């Protein structure tokens, strides 16, 4: 098993303790395939797709029961919600964390370092706890209190970093350098196994729609694991003829932090990244943005932005349809509703929205946004 540099194509062994190519590019796991008959139907977790995951087939894994989240047809514009908000730690990040942490444990790593706005941190902390590894998390100072408590409950160490999101990454990498040999920086936005876990959401959607491909998939974009994982999962089904075509993939950002959108419309100079309610997607310089824009175009989808007001409105609408989600996820829902309103997607089409995070994660921010609590509470 090997990885290739996205930038220069250089090959690395899967067990090498590196995250970046010598040229500075990030690494990718090659495409695999999945057929209906490969699915281990008795396993109600994402490990049912083991055949397509780059973890040895007989390796034991630490699992918290991740995957196979509900796919629900809602009364909100007929959208299907893929409820990864019901994952073990409350976000889709468990898909990626399950792969990364199991792999690092197998390699004998004792301590894992990550930087995260909260959900990836909670996921890493939970899987490290279950696997008996130490975990050190670097997080922006503005992260929701609910997420910080959750991370600490799993026993991880937290270092809060003020400044832009990208500063948090730098601090995490510096710490790992200081502890070389013992600890490993395994940033979820760069680790090649993270999107491998995320791709299982595509397999599940296909399986849960009765082996059909949806017309459209709507996903948020922060670092791009959810989106590129989704793209890869469907590609792997397409390449062996399990689905006849790709879904159109629509990517949603908050207008407050819109680097992918700016690149997509050819106006990178207009990119901005100011604080947003959608804290999970506030990444100013996503390293995979070029790959992501190419993938979106290839499917016939697009990149859209939503305002802070639309996010708040979508929080309310989702809850009235029975779904309590965090603001970052509400941004995705707002984007899907906008695409319907503008006629880009039709209400009769099968459109799946990935619900990335649970509302219980961000009670403080939701309460303030909706006016149920004031900021000092
Ligand atoms: C991390 C996260 C995202 C962004 O996902 P990427 O894979 O980084 O693009 C979206 N929503 C929530 C709730 C998240 O935690
Ligand atoms: Zn390279």
Topology:
Blueprint: E1 2-5, E2 11-13, E3 27-28, E4 71-73, E5 80-83, H1 93-106, E6 111-115, H2 119-131, E7 134-140, H3 145-153, E8 157-161, H4 165-178, E9 183-185, H5 193-198, H6 200-208, E10 216-220, H7 225-238, E11 248-254, H8 259-264, H9 289-299, E12 303-306, H10 308-320, H11 327-341, E13 351-355, H12 363-370
Parallel strand pairs: 5-13, 6-7, 6-9, 7-8, 10-11, 10-13, 11-12
Antiparallel strand pairs: 1-2, 1-3, 4-5
Helix pairs in contact: 1-2, 2-3, 6-7, 10-11
Bound molecules: pyridoxal-5'-phosphate and zinc ion.
Zinc ion is lined by residues 5, 7-8, 10, 21, 23, 25.
Please describe the structure with a list of short key phrases separated by commas or semicolons.
35% helix, globular, alpha/beta, 377 residues, binds pyridoxal-5'-phosphate, 4-stranded parallel β-sheet, 6-stranded mixed β-sheet, 12 helices, Rossmann fold, binds zinc ion
């Amino acid at each position: 098993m090997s990885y290739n540099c996205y930038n220069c194509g250089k090959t690395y062994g899967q067990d090498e303790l590196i995250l970046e190519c010598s040229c500075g590019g990030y690494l990718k796991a090659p495409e695999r395939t999945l057929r209906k008959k490969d699915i281990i139907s008795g396993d109600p977790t994402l490990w049912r797709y083991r055949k397509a995951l780059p973890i040895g087939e007989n390796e034991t894994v630490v699992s918290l029961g991740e995957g196979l989240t509900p796919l629900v047809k809602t009364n909100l514009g007929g959208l299907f919600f893929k409820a990864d908000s019901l994952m073990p730690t409350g976000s889709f990040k468990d898909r990626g964390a399950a792969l990364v942490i199991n792999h690092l444990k197998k390699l004998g790593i004792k301590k894992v370092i990550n930087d995260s706005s909260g959900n990836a941190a909670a996921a890493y902390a939970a899987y490290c706890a279950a696997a008996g590894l130490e975990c050190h998390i670097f997080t922006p100072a503005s992260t929701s209190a609910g997420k910080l408590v959750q991370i600490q409950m799993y026993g991880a160490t937290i270092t809060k970093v003020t400044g832009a999101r990208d500063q948090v990454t730098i601090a995490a990498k510096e710490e790992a350098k200081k502890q070389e040999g013992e600890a490993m920086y395994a940033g979820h936005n760069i680790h090649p196994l993270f999107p491998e876990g995320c791709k299982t959401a595509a397999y599940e959607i296909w399986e849960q729609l009765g082996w059909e491909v949806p017309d459209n998939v709507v996903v948020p974009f922060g670092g791009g694991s959810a989106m590129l994982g989704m793209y890869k999962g469907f590609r792997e089904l397409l390449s062996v003829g399990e689905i006849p075509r790709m879904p159109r993939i629509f990517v949603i950002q908050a207008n407050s932090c819109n680097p992918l959108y700016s690149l997509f419309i050819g106006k990178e100079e207009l990119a901005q990244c100011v604080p947003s309610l959608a804290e999970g997607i506030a990444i100013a310089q996503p390293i995979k943005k070029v790959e992501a824009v190419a993938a979106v175009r290839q499917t016939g989808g697009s990149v859209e932005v939503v305002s802070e007001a639309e996010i708040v409105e979508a929080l309310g609408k989702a809850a009235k349809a029975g779904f309590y989600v965090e603001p970052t996820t509400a941004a995705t829902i707002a984007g899907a509703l906008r695409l319907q309103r503008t006629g880009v997607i039709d209400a009769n089409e099968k459109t799946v929205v990935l619900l990335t995070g649970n509302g219980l994660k961000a009670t403080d921010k939701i309460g303030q946004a909706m006016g149920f609590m004031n900021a000092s509470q």
